Amino acid sequence: MMCPKCGGSMEKVTFKEVDVNRCSGCRGIWFDLLKHEELKKLKGSEVIDDGDSKIGRENNKIDRIQCPSCQTPMIRMVDREQPHIWYESCSVCHGVYFDAGEFRDFKSRTLIDIFRDLLAGPRE
Ligand SMILES: [Zn+2]
Ligand SMILES: [Zn+2]
Question: Is the model's pTM score more than 0.90?
Answer without folding.
Answer: yes
